[in-house]
Amino acid sequence: GGSCPQKNAEILSSQYGINLFLAGLLLTFAWAVHAVGISKSHLLSYLITLMLLQLLWMLWYLCRSCTQRRLIRDKDTHAGARWLKCGITLFAVITLILDSFKIGYYIDFSNCLSPTEGIFPVTHAMHTILQVYFLWCHAKDIIQSFKTLERFGVIHSVFTNLLLWTNGVLTESKHQLNEHKERLITLGFGNITIVLDDHAPQCNCTTTTLCSIFSQGIYYLYPFNIEYHILASTMLYVLWKNIGRKVEHHQQHKTPFKFHGITVGMIFGLIVLTSTIAIVVVYLIQIGHSKIKSELALTMFYLHAIFVLALMCTAGIVALLIYRLEDRSLDNSKNPARKLDAELLVGTAAGSWLLSWGSILAVICAQAHPKYTWYNLPYSVLVIIEKYIQNLFIIESIHREQEKVNDDIKTLRIVTISRGSTLSLTPSYKEIYNGRAARDSGEVPCLLKGSICGRENGGGGSKEETSQENSSVMHSASDFSFYSRNSVTNNKRRVLKNIAAFLFLCNLSLWIPPAFGCRPEYDNGLEEIVFGFEPWIIVVNLAMPFSIFYRMHSAASLFEVNCKT
After folding, report:
1. What CA–CA distance (Å, rounded) separates 101 from 222?
2. What is the pLDDT of residue 233?
């Protein structure tokens, strides 16, 4: 009977959050299309109000936690991993730099900007600091008191971060779109109407140099701000799902990250990362300056991406084949964090799949095909296949049970004194097992086949010595078989760890180009001719944020896989 009110509270809080998000989303859309009577100050005022309400709730929760710090609370050991907290802290620090740039930008243009544009970055900075502290201290909490109130507070925080993410995505996309429109002319697409969507202040800057630094720096920092808010919303969502949850108390094995044994994967991954950064720099320099340079930049990007994606597909297939050779059960226990990871992988991959299928159809249906557009076809096909394989590998990895080492197989060290010398022996599993059986029958196990057994037998005859030698040979064979199997298992594990490390760095590499403006879906122009300029731009602006998030989320999941393997 007690679960029904809590289920109703969960439904009510989720509906509250969805309506909160839809209202903000519609307000954001109205500002983006220059709706009559809607200005940026209205949108910022709404976001400021949401952030202040979340600040009040977090302060109340922290104060209540301090008064009850002596109570023993349940924790979700799978939620809020340390590496995830470190990642969100890094993004939060860069977000604070972004807020400082916005404050400086407001000061320089204060004569013609709304006061809300100065209040927003200050409120956002306070919100960021307190939220990161809250997540560090309470991301693992399983709330069992004031559950109805806490559900509304947590879900409010989830959708506040989602709205801040949406606002960041839209602002960054509008900037990218303006640059894209200016570059289209250089590729010869003069039939596309160029109308810049300008939200620049209508007054002069007090210090031109600082204004240029602030305005340009803001858009280079937005990708980190976008990742910060989406990571915060996912961590808060897990906290919301854990409210009132009953957990089984069992020992959680710590899985620290170690560089030992992943040298090969790290080396190849760093090569891919370095080459990707170089490609992005050259791409951003060359694109838009002339038609020839733009086509060379696109060709270079496609060839590099095809090579990297082919390597990633190969690595993923090898990992899946190793899993097929192993016989290990899957962990199907209830785990909100793991379930969310799997759903986000598949859901966000749909964004890049949509773009890839659009590019494939454009290449097939277009009447004219510039040479560089043919590279778009294998690139788009590989994007679909690579995500399919990688999702299978990650989801199976996070659901596989960790190997449990039997107490009987743990290493035992037996030290004895024989004729004045110290002997050390590590017995095999069969020796330990036979020793236990002998002990149960009242006999003493003969683990040391040298001086101890000889003294106990009193040196009695050649038959005993022959039997002892044969037994030693049999034990040596069993030892060799056991350590051989152990060696094969360790080799498989080492290969999997190297693959996970390589894919981790590759996903970071593929996150960089779209996050920092290297987007061939914008620049090759073929899709815009087939589908029309505005329809394709809408598709790209909707799908690209999910594609970018997929790479960062995959990198985080692969880091966890590397620690777990």
Report:
1. 11
2. 92
d(CA 293, CA 285): 9
Distance CA(17)–CA(92), nearest Å, equals: 23
What's 1-65 look like in SS3?
Answer: CCHHHHHHHHHHHHHHHHHHHHHHHHHHHHHHCCCCCCCHHHHHHHHHHHHHHHHHHHHHHHHHH
Helices (H) and strands (E) in the chain, counts: 16, 2
| pTM confidence score | 0.73
b/e per residue 128-161 (b: at least 16 CB within 10 A): bebbbebbeebbbbbbeeeebebbbbbbbbbbbb
Task: Return d(Cα 259, Cα 498) in angstroms, integer.
Answer: 10
CA distance 529 to 29: 26
Structure tokens given for 391 = 């999702």
Cα 463 from chain centre: 66
Quick one: pLDDT at residue 251?
45
In contact, 138 and 239? CB cutoff 8 Å: yes
Mean pLDDT, residues 8-28: 90
Return the higher-pLDDT residue of 336 and 67.
67
Structure letter (DSSP) for residue 243? T
Amino acid at 49: T
Are 204 and 496 in contact by the 8 Å Cβ rule? The answer is no
Tokens representing 452 are 């101890």
- Residue 78 carries which DSSP code? T
* CA–CA separation, 438 and 433 (whole Å): 9
| Euclidean distance between CA atoms 277 and 524, whole angstroms | 20
Cβ atoms of 382 and 309 closer than 8 Å: yes
